[in-house]
Amino acid sequence: MLSGKQVVLGVTGGIAAYKAVELCRLFVREGADVRVILTAAAKQFVTPLTFQTVSGNRVYDDLFAGSRLYTVDHVGLAQAADLMLVAPATANCLGKLAVGIADDLLTTTLLAVGCPVLLAPAMNTKMLENPAVQENIDKLTMRGYRFVPPTEGELACGDCGGGRLAPVDIIFAAAKSLLLPSTELRGVRLLVTAGPTREAIDPVRYLTNHSSGKMGYAVAKAAAEQGAEVTLVSGPVTLPAPAGVNIVHVTTAQEMYAAVLNLYPEMDVVVKAAAVADYRPAGVQETKIKKDGDMVLSLVRTPDILAELGKYKQNQILVGFAAETDNLRENALAKLFRKNLELIVANDLTEDGAGFNTDTNVVKFYFRDGQERQLARMSKLEVAREIIREIKRMMNIATEIS
């Protein structure tokens, strides 16, 4: 299945390096051309000869060695690769990649690639939980790097917890999904809204909310992975646009309303993940309001975008979100029927790991036909892939998402 595909397999210095040998064998067995890069630390755990024997190719381990195949090894390897996989990826490797350090053959190649990069971290539990490591993982995720998260289990140091390299078959399946990307949503036009809106009070101040846009951006990315033609209408956020997505930037609720209603007739699916301000000031002061005692602010309602979409829906699938602090099921279901949705994604903002400004979410799906589905705590990208899975099901596209 992987004939003609070239995989660059990076192996860093962790005890799990020996498992990369089996990973290499799986790629070769399915016809891939595997080029292995070993760091100096990786060679303390497994020899170049082992990988040369399994891959059938020369092993690359020296940035300054004379190249036999490419003019410059790290550039040639990067340009030829259909996928770059690092397994195991140590905390050191993730940290260098997050800040752009290129001090060996592996990191220089990682910075030169244009193909998808898949990272499979493995390290001690405390190292994995260290805030610096988590920040690096978050940075790399937002830049488009794909991860196969480590699992829990007994570690080489004797501890038991997170940080164990994911099973080789799981890593291999994730790699195949990138080498043979799904096109199941090809031809489907999907609109996602994301982020907050800002409603000006004066030239300095505005009303807004805590939305970071991460959930909506994750949905756009997950849909694009499946081949959909994705348009992302985004409020003001600090996130990079997902690859392959058309983006429309807006600031106010009225601007988002106009953009979404203009695009709506062309769409097959709308996922309304934006946290649109419900109110705006009745008037905007032209000059900065000076502090002079208490201030009374008169507010008026902003347009209810999702309700408008439900009112004028033809054959589109509508997905909404409900962020609640109490009566989750009752409030979510009321919103689902009031706004004529097929699916509402509800979360309890009081629950740990859910809601705004987090990289994880804990949600429950409520469907128009009465079905319910509770998801465990997971990354927002994983939640987004579950949303896309349900959209595919509603469109009678049954194939599983990798």
Count of DSSP strands: 21
Structural domain tally: 2
Briefly note the structural class of the backbone.
alpha/beta
Unreliable stretches covering 5 or more consecutive residues: 398-402
Oligomer: single chain
- Strand order, main sheet: write it out: 12-11-8-13-16-17-19-20
Largest sheet: 8 strands, mixed
CATH topology description of the largest domain: Rossmann fold
Cα end-to-end separation? 16 Å
Strand content: 15-25%
**Backbone CA Rg:** 24 Å
Helix share, percent: 25-40%
CATH architecture of the largest domain: 3-Layer(aba) Sandwich
What does this structure look like?
With 402 residues, the chain is of the alpha/beta class. It folds into two domains: 6-179, Flavin prenyltransferase-like (Rossmann fold), CATH 3.40.50; 189-394, Rossmann fold, CATH 3.40.50. The chain contains 13 helices and 21 strands. Strands 12-11-8-13-16-17-19-20 form an eight-stranded mixed beta sheet, with helices on both faces. The protein has a five-stranded parallel beta sheet with strand order 2-1-3-4-5, with helices on both faces. Helix 9 crosses helix 13. The longest helix has 15 residues, at 380-394. The relative contact order is 0.09.
